[in-house]
Amino acid sequence: MHEFFKNYRMKTYTLKSAAKNQETNTVWDAFVEYLETVYFEGAAEELDKELVEFEYSSYKSCYER
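The chain above was modelled as a monomer; its predicted structure follows.
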């Protein structure tokens, strides 16, 4: 159930900021913005490396078809 809400939240964020993300230079930049929205400013640098890798993989899966 937790995974469902996390994916829903991620997809909702992605849809709401799609126009803004198109202006972003890289997927990584968009991901960092997402992390700062969900966690806190500077989260990409301060969170555990394994957690960031997991979150990035999940984030990218929203764009894959």
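The chain has one domain: 2-61.
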